[in-house]
Amino acid sequence: MGNQIMPASPPKDPIIALLLSLFLLGGTGQIFLGQTTKGIVLIAATLVTCGLAGILGAIDAYMIAKRLQEGNSVDEWEFFWTNNNKQLNS
After folding, report:
1. Residue 54 in contact with residue 21, Cβ under 8 Å?
2. Does 56 fall in a domain?
3. For residues 64, 79, 3 and 14, what is the CA-based torsion angle, rounded to 10 degrees?
4. What residues contact residue 18 under an 8 Å CB cut-off, 6+ apart?
5. How many Å apart are CA 35 and CA 31, to the nearest integer?
6. Would you call the peptide bond into 10 cis, given omega within 30 degrees of 0 as the criterion?
7. Domain for residue 15, yes or no?
8. Is 85 left (phi over 0), alpha (psi -120 to 50) or beta?
9. 74-78-42-31 Cα dihedral, nearest 10 degrees
10. Band of the pLDDT at 86, cuts 50, 70, 90?
């Protein structure tokens, strides 16, 4: 288990995370959200797969940003298909 990424205040916009991964490189949205190591790996995978991993990275960036926006923390290596919602107590 890696480091926990806590929700930002104000929350980071899921659309910005999506667009970063779609139009720059898959993985830049993850870096924007604080999942730096995962983002770097996704950038490398995007380059190796001629952009195919970028589509997965864009979907992942959007979904992870939504979790953070809802007040859930995420693991540094958490992907959108995992359901590890950790609601923070207010």
Report:
1. yes
2. yes
3. -10
4. 29, 58, 59, 61, 62, 65
5. 5
6. yes
7. yes
8. beta
9. 10
10. low
Radius of gyration from C-alpha coordinates of the chain: 12
Confidence of residue 83 (pLDDT cuts 50, 70, 90): confident
User: Which position has the token pair 């104000």?
Assistant: 10
User: Could you tell me if residue 85 is inside a domain?
Assistant: no
Task: Supply the range of the domain harboring residue 27.
Answer: 11-68
Whole-prediction pTM value? 0.89
Closest CA to 46 of 30, 61, 26: 26
Sequence-ordered strand ranges (E) for the chain: 4-5, 72-75, 86-87
4 domain-assigned: no
- Residues 18-74 have pLDDT tens digits of 999 999 989 999 999 999 999 999 999 999 999 999 999 999 999 999 999 999 999
Place of tokens 């916009």: 13
